[in-house]
Amino acid sequence: MSGRPRTIAFAPGERNIFLHLLTACNLACHHCYINREQHGTATLPIEQAERWLALLLAPGKANNLVLLGGEPTLHPDLARAVRTARRLGYASVTIDTNGYLFHNLLDRLAPDEAVLSFSLDGPDEKVNDPLRGEGVFTVCTANIRQAVALGFTVSVIYTVSRRNIDHLHRMAPLLVDLGVSRFFIQVIGLRGNASTGGDALQLTPEEWLAVVPTEAARAAAQGLEVIYPKVFLDADEPFQCAGKVAENYFVFPNGRVYQCPLCEDYPIHSFSIKGDRLVENPGLTEKRFFSLTIPEGCVMHKLLQADNIPYDAHGQPERRISCCLLKNRIPPG
Q: Do residues 68 and 21 touch, judged by C-beta distance below 8 A?
């Protein structure tokens, strides 16, 4: 079995931009976090997207960009956005896709221009498609094979829920066969669609701890780099909030800019883009909460998902919740 997981520390010299080019999608996944009431229905015109990419770049830092939707490959100018980002100086560009790769994306990008990150929630169509849509498994895996054959670096994101956790152990052999290099195991968040049916999807702490760390190690032993959320802090581990010690900006087409993804269902974003300027919002925003210290760890989790935190007979939390952006990493082999 592979080595022990190592916590990926927040890097003070980095800035990570998560830019949603649009909120439209060809699928309707059960756990989709997009909330169009809050995030809007607009598609960023490419000229505006390019101005925002320049605005959000931090000179002198390692800038990393993740392009998201909805489904970002539905944007007709996605390839142009990637090239603009690289020309501006973004160190890395990742495209998060459901696997459909619209607008002949693989023909319009070179493998060294972007990493492709595919969402796949089951080792076969019987597990994946009830969560993501009929026929999705076949399309997604075929396009993964094609991307790998063309020389793209490919990762897969698996969002663990009660509907697929029993099949997590079957993912590593599939991904090795597909040629995937990195495996992200993601916890389901009570946002968007999942916020209305989360009890049927989200795992208990006991269910997560009983399965995910062990299966992550087994996947790494089979040659995959595995990354998964820290979720719970060790007894002697200090709590760190990414909103205070890291630079992460989650940007939506309506100009909302969040620092914490847990907050995205609410109009409490720290910043807005107005007139192509990044403006800090006044009043009670997410940023006001980041400095609060509580026994539970993450204050936003306590405020927004309090029912997920178990307490002992003395009213103390049984486990402290880590920042949702803190990850564990196990190297391959």
A: yes
Quick one: how many helices (H) and strands (E) in the chain?
10, 13
Domain positions in the chain: 6-293+322-330
Q: Residue 314: in which H helix or E strand, if any?
A: none
DSSP H helical ranges for the chain: 36-39, 46-56, 78-88, 105-108, 125-132, 136-150, 171-178, 205-221, 242-245, 299-304
Beta bridge partners of 256: 272
pTM here is 0.95
Q: What is the pLDDT of residues 242-285, one digit of tens each?
A: 999 999 999 999 999 999 999 999 999 999 999 999 999 999 99
Q: Write the pLDDT tens digit of every residue in 71-91.
A: 999 999 999 999 999 999 999
Where does residue 202 rank: exposed (0-12), middle (13-18), buried (19+ CB within 10 A)? Answer: buried
d(CA 89, CA 303): 37
The single-letter code of the amino acid at 304 is: L
Distance, CA of 236 to CA of 321 (rounded, Å) = 13
Residues 36, 58 contacting (CB under 8 angstroms): no
Locus of tokens 């998560």 = 18
Task: Count the neighbouring beta carbons within 10 Å of the beta carbon of residue 233.
Answer: 19
Largest separation between any pair of C-alpha atoms in the chain: 60
CATH number given to 6-293+322-330: 3.20.20.70
Residues in CB range of 136: below 8 A, 6 or more apart: 27, 98, 99, 125, 128, 129
pLDDT tens per residue across span 164-211: 999 999 999 999 999 999 999 998 866 656 555 545 788 888 899 999
The rounded percent of the chain whose pLDDT value lies above 90 is 83
